[in-house]
Design a protein that fits this description.
It is built from 15 helices and seven strands. The protein is of the alpha+beta class. The protein folds into three domains: 80 residues, Double Stranded RNA Binding Domain; 93 residues, Orthogonal Bundle (DNA polymerase, domain 1), CATH 1.10.150.130; 184 residues, Intergrase catalytic core (hpI Integrase, Chain A), CATH 1.10.443.10. The strands form two sheets. The chain has a four-stranded antiparallel sheet, with helices on one face. Strands 5-6-7 form a three-stranded antiparallel sheet. Helix 9 runs antiparallel to helix 11.
């Protein structure tokens, strides 16, 4: 007699496993632990076999019968349902092992040691946010230009055209890694050249006029947030480094006694020296007792001391002070230093450029080494810090003089 929903539902476990038979090879196996498992018995190549169809109640009696009927059709067509299931599972495992996300993470893991840590974090963050949700699960050999473009268009739709171009570059690099490792024949991303909108090149917003910089400095010094963010805001104009270099600064790289900060530039991978002005040193000495005992980073993350302050910490603070993105971003302090130190304070351009970490050559074509003109650069940053103090403390309609 065929099974009924009530009979299946009311079946109780016994000391030993037992079976409740339905029709056409379908039966329910009741385990002593209480599990109810659907099984289908069939013959293939004169051998009796069993096929698992799932467990009750997730698979109802109706569902089990439909799965049994589908398996019977396969047997009638000369297909072994068990072998077919194993083949499909093997194919799925192979697809997952060769998915874009798996290969992209493998590529990232190999490349990360050659990158600056901040760059490695940015690349992985971009892939997690903008690529993996849309193309991560696709087997890389099945990745098509149209699918890649759809993911990139989502990025463009939020106005991040430059990010979309970076994402396309990353996809191409991952694909070329897959080609080199024998998992892809050709790069579908190469067919997308010219498919994205052109990036409009814009300089980072900056204040390059002394009379406009003074109010900004007053705002920075009046910020009432956490001590690490407050110190980062005040230090940023004094040490014109890149925002990522500032937020990832480590105490082990700073010699408070010698008033020097030595670290590896994120772009050139060369050692760079930042002489610390009296004002910069005072800020670090104030922060040192608060963060050095808990973190290797001068400006640790508010969430965990094991990581540096986030990219947006300083930017968010600027926004809370109503300093808009169109007025100033973290990079803008470098432009302020570059312009004012030259045009107002009268320092040599090559000295300024060298302090910014740019590649500079002397009149004979030789590249300056890392210790070139260190006393002069120390004097430059001290004059710069004094000048910023004058701008910050000047009364309205009063402008600081030149050094």
């Amino acid at each position: 007699m065929p099974l009924t929903d009530a009979k299946v539902r009311n079946a109780r476990p016994q000391e030993k496993p037992y079976k409740l038979y339905d029709q056409r090879g379908l039966f329910l196996l009741i385990a002593p632990e209480g599990g109810k498992l659907w099984r289908f018995r069939y013959r293939f190549d004169n051998k009796e076999k069993l096929l698992a169809l799932g467990g009750y109640p997730d698979v109802t009696l109706k569902d089990a019968r439909e799965r049994r009927d589908e398996a019977r059709k396969q047997v009638a067509a000369g297909i072994d349902p068990s072998a077919q299931r194993k083949a499909m599972k093997t194919a799925r495992v192979e697809r997952e092992a060769n998915s874009f996300e798996v290969i992209a993470r493998e590529w990232h893991q190999r490349q990360a040691p050659t990158w600056a840590p901040s760059h490695a974090v940015r690349v992985l963050s971009l892939m997690n946010r903008d690529l993996f949700p849309w193309i991560g699960g696709i087997a890389i050999e099945n990745l098509r230009p149209r699918v890649i473009l759809e993911a990139l268009e989502r990025i463009c739709a939020r106005g991040a055209v430059e990010t979309a171009h970076r994402a396309l570059t990353i996809v191409g690099q991952v694909n070329r890694f897959a080609i080199a490792s024998g998992r892809l024949e050709s790069d579908p991303a190469r067919d997308l050249r010219g498919a994205l909108p052109t990036v409009i090149d814009r300089h980072f917003p900056a204040i390059t006029k002394p009379e406009e910089l003074g109010p900004i400095l007053k705002a920075l010094w009046s910020y009432q947030g956490t001590l690490p963010v407050r110190c980062a805001l005040r230090l940023a104009p004094l040490v014109p480094v890149r925002p990522g270099e500032l937020r990832s600064a480590k105490w082990s790289d700073i010699d408070l006694a010698q008033a020097e900060w030595r670290f590896t530039l994120s772009k050139t991978k060369q050692e760079h020296i930042v002489p610390l002005s009296r004002q910069a040193l005072e800020i670090l000495l104030e922060l040192h007792p608060a963060t050095s005992p808990i973190s290797e980073y001068v400006f640790p993350s508010a969430r965990t001391p094991k990581r540096p302050m986030s990219d947006n910490a300083v930017l968010s603070a600027l926004r809370r002070m109503d300093i808009s993105r169109d007025t100033l971003v973290g990079h803008g302090f470098r432009a302020s230093f570059r312009t004012i130190a030259d045009e107002v304070l009268g320092f040599r351009v090559e000295l300024i450029e060298h302090q910014l970490g740019h590649t500079v050559k002397d009149s004979l074509g030789r590249a300056y080494n890392r210790t070139t003109h260190l006393p002069a650069r120390k004097a430059l940053l001290q004059v710069w810090a004094n000048y910023l103090d004058e701008l910050r403390t000047a009364k309205p309609n009063e402008q600081a003089g030149t050094a």
